[in-house]
Design goal:
Among the domains are: about 50 residues, no CATH class; about 140 residues, Rossmann fold (3-Layer(aba) Sandwich), CATH 3.40.50. Helices cover about 70% and strands about 5% of the residues. A five-stranded parallel β-sheet has the order 3-2-1-4-5, sandwiched between helices. Helix 7 crosses helix 12 and helix 8 packs across helix 12. It is elongated, with a radius of gyration of 75 Å. It starts with a helix and ends with a helix. About 5% of the residues have low confidence.
Length: about 375
């Protein structure tokens, strides 16, 4: 730009070249009458380089045109901005109208809900007043019922005291009656015992005076022998002293006392054993009988073979040894004589002298074999 301003030759050559390239626009600029539709910038550039007469005026007019175009563009931009703002405002108004419609709908709904709430409030207020009224009535009724309950409780307490007094009197009378009944039972039992004791002693005395042995045969046996035929296949039920069934019958008598001649039994049944083993086996078997029948059982051994440190006998079995200078037979007779008359006594011994002696005192003699078979059956 500085060379164009200071070098006329260079500017002239450039101007001719530009005019050749510009064509009609260049010729119009040289003539000083460019067309109105031409670009003001090109017109100003050609006028500056070629510098025809009045080129400054051309440049001035081009500058004016350029400024006018710039102002027009600014106005257009402002118009476009205004249009955009107007469009946005219209959109905002549309949105506002939609929101306003929504708000109006919401307001209508809220008003409707408010109306419902007011109606519910009126209903609840009315229900509250009614409830308060009922509560007052209930409180009054409760106070009345409490008064009645208090009076009823007082009456009940008085009745309870009266019944307790009657119960105490009844219990006292019942205690007196029980005591009287107990004394009456004791007296009655004493009279009954005395009567039974008298009868038992009388029966025992008669049996001793008459020297009656236990009946081996019953009246029906005599009738069967003389007036009836018995089947030959029927078993013979004997009541001998060696019959274990007879022993069972005697052991079934109330308060029976079984007295056993110890070595007399063991030497018949367990002679192959030692004396200690014989004693242990017999005592163990008698323990089973005592447990089964509940009877009193006493076994007597001769004291000559007495040993120390014997194990305790089974429950219900009494083990005795005769003293020095005495025999088991004598101790058995003492045991029989010590028993009250009428008590069932069963003496097991195969010694005939022992059997005859105890029979005279009301005992039932049984053979050792009966006991051995009874033990074998157990």
């Amino acid at each position: 730009a500085a060379q164009l301003a200071s070098d006329p030759l260079f500017r002239d050559r450039v101007g001719r070249r530009i005019l050749a390239d510009a064509g009609e626009l260049g010729a119009a600029v040289v003539e000083g009458d460019p067309p109105g539709a031409a670009d003001p910038v090109e017109v100003a550039a050609l006028a500056y380089v070629v510098r025809p007469p009045g080129w400054r005026a051309l440049i001035e007019r081009a500058g004016t045109a350029i400024r006018a175009e710039a102002d027009s563009a600014a106005v257009a931009d402002q118009v476009r901005a205004a249009e955009q703002r107007a469009a946005r405002a219209e959109h905002d108004r549309a949105v506002a109208r939609v929101e306003a419609d929504k708000l109006r709908s919401e307001l209508a709904r809220v008003r409707e809900e408010l109306a419902q709430l007011r109606a519910e409030n009126r209903t609840l207020s009315r229900a509250l007043r009614e409830s308060q009224t009922r509560e007052r009535r209930t409180a009054e009724l409760l106070a009345t019922e409490r008064g009645r309950a208090a009076r009823a409780a007082a009456d009940h307490e008085a009745e309870l005291r009266r019944l307790r007094a009657k119960l105490a009197a009844a219990e006292s009378a019942a205690g007196t009656a029980r005591q009287n009944a107990k004394e009456a039972r004791v007296l009655q039992n004493a009279r009954l015992w005395l009567l039974l004791e008298t009868i038992g002693q009388a029966a025992a005395g008669l049996r001793r005076e008459l020297a009656l042995d236990p009946a081996d045969r019953l009246p029906a046996d005599f009738v069967a022998e003389t007036a009836a035929e018995e089947p030959t296949s029927a078993p013979q039920h004997t009541r001998d002293t060696d019959d274990p069934a007879r022993l069972d019958q005697l052991l079934a008598l109330p308060r029976a006392h079984l007295i056993v001649d110890g070595y007399n039994v063991t030497k018949r049944g367990f002679s192959e054993m030692s004396l200690e083993q014989q004693r242990q086996r017999l005592i163990a078997g008698l323990g089973g009988i005592a447990a089964q029948t509940g009877d009193e059982v006493t076994v007597v051994f001769d004291g000559a073979e007495r040993v120390l440190g014997l194990p305790p006998p089974p429950r219900g079995v009494r083990v005795l040894f005769s003293r020095k200078g005495e025999t088991a037979d004598e101790l058995i007779r003492q045991l029989v004589r010590a028993e009250p008359p009428g008590r069932p006594l069963i003496v097991v011994s195969s010694d005939r002298e022992v059997a005859d002696g105890v029979r005279r005192h009301g005992a039932y003699p049984m053979d050792a074999d009966a006991l051995l078979r009874r033990l074998a059956r157990s």
